[in-house]
Amino acid sequence: MKRSIYWYKVDNAGKIFPAVSKDSRSSVFRLSFYLKEEIIPELLEQAVNETLPRFESFAVQLKAGMFWYYLAANTRPVQIEKESPIICRFFHWTKNNGYLFKVYYFKNKITLETFHSLSDGTGAMEFLKAITQNYLKLCGHEFSYSGKVKSELPSSPRETVDMFVNQYDKSSKMNLKEEVAYHVKGEKFADYFTLCVNAKVPTEQLLAHTRRLGVTVGVYITAVLAYSIYTQRPDCKTTKCPIKIFIPTNLRKFFPSDTLRNFSLYIKATFDGRKEWTFEQMLAETKRQFDAQLVKEELHARMNSNVWIEKNLAIRLLPLFLKNIAFKIGYKRLADDISTCYISNLGKVTLPNDMNDFVEDVEFAIGGFGIAVTSIHGHTNIMLNTDFKDISILQYFINHFIQEGLLVTVDTNYLEA
Fold first, then answer.
1. Distance between CA 362 and CA 109 in Å, rounded?
2. Which residues are registered as beta bridge partners of 25?
C-alpha cells in the first residue's frame, strides 16, 4: 500500500546543497525530451501530478530539523511553468509548493529541473521518462508493457535507499585533501544567464573515433575540454594551480542498486598548466587517471570518507544553523576551490520501442561552466554551458571535433542572451 505519511534523511551526497545553494550556484540540473508534437500544458500538468505518487523520493518537501535537514511527504499539487530562457535557475522550494523539482514546457519540449539534494541524473531521468509516457497516454497514445519505465512497475523501498550509508565501511577511507585548482575568470552574463551550445555528433562516428584512439568517450571529451582551457587561457600556464576537471561517476555500475536518489561520486582529471602539453599527451594522461580512479575499491574508500564526516559525533551534535556555516566553509574549500569545471555524462537514454516513435531528442544541461553529455537515436548531444561572455574555450572545443573529422551540428541559445 502506498504511504501517505513518511519521512527520511537527505542522502549523504545531498546534505550540503540546501546550505550552499544560491542564485550564483543553483545546484540544479536539467533534463529534457523533445517530442514530435506540441505540448498541451493542461495534460502535462495532469501527467506530472498523476505520476508523482509513484515516485516517493520525489513526492517530498525539505524540512529543517534541529540537527539535519530531512525529506517529508508532500501531497500538494505540482504546477508546471512555461520554460524560461535562463536554464538551471536557483529556485527556493518554499515558493514551489515545497517541491525540489520543476517541470517546464516550451513548444514540443518537456523539461525537468531537479535540485541536487533530491536525486542525480540517473534517478531524475527515470522520473522524466514516466512523466513523458503518462503525458503521451493522456494524449490518447497507447503503449505496451516494456518494463523500461518505472511507472509500469510497482514502487519498491529499494528506490529510496541512501546507498552511501548502505555501503559504508569505516575500515576503508582515504584522505580527501585537495590542492586549489585553476579557475577560469572573466566577465559573466547578467542575471545568471547560462549560454548553452549543443554539439550534436553521430554516436557511431564518435565511438569509432575514440576506439581508434584507444579511449572512452568520457576520456576523450575530458581531454578535449582540458586542452581547450590550456590553449585558450594563457594565465593557466603561469600558475601553480592545476586545471582540475571533475566528472561524476554513476556508482550503480559498481554497487548494484535501484535507488532513485543520489548515488554518484566525482573522479577528477588534473593537469599542471606549467607543463608543455600536446593533445596526445593530455589524452594519454586523462586515460591513465581515469583507469586509476575507476576502480571499485578506490571509489568505495572515497565514498566511505564522505560518510565518515557525516557520522562523526562532533558533526552530528552540531545544531543545524552551525552545520550550515560549516557546510559553506567546507564547500568552498572542498568543492569550489578545488575544481576548474565539471563534465557529466549520462550515457545512452533507453526508451521502450513504442515510446521512441514520439521522442525526437533528449537534452541534459548543468548551470555555470561545464559540459553535460547524453545520447539517443544514434546521436550524442554534448551540451557546453558557460556563464562567461568569452566563448573561446567552447569554440576551440567544437573546432577540435571538426578538425578530427567528426560531423558536428551546433545549436545554441546565444541569441536569447
1. 9
2. 22
**Phi and psi torsions of 266, nearest 5°:** -80, 135
Q: How many distinct helices (H) and strands (E) make up the chain?
A: 12, 15
Q: What is the pLDDT of residue 7?
A: 87
> Cβ distance 323 to 68 under 8 Å?
yes
Q: Give the other-Cβ count within 10 Å of 198's Cβ.
A: 19
SS3 category, 391: coil
Residue ranges in the chain modelled with pLDDT below 70: 1-4, 415-417
Residues 112, 31 contacting (CB under 8 angstroms): yes
E strand residue ranges, 36-184? 60-64, 69-73, 81-82, 101-106, 109-115
Q: What is the mean pLDDT of the chain?
A: 93
pLDDT per position as a tens digit, 22-44: 888 899 999 999 999 999 999 99
CA distance 351 to 377: 10
Cell 500500500: give the residue: 1
Q: Which residue has the cell 578506490?
A: 298
CA distance 389 to 410: 18
Give the residue among 223, 161, 243 at the shortest CA–CA distance from 397.
223
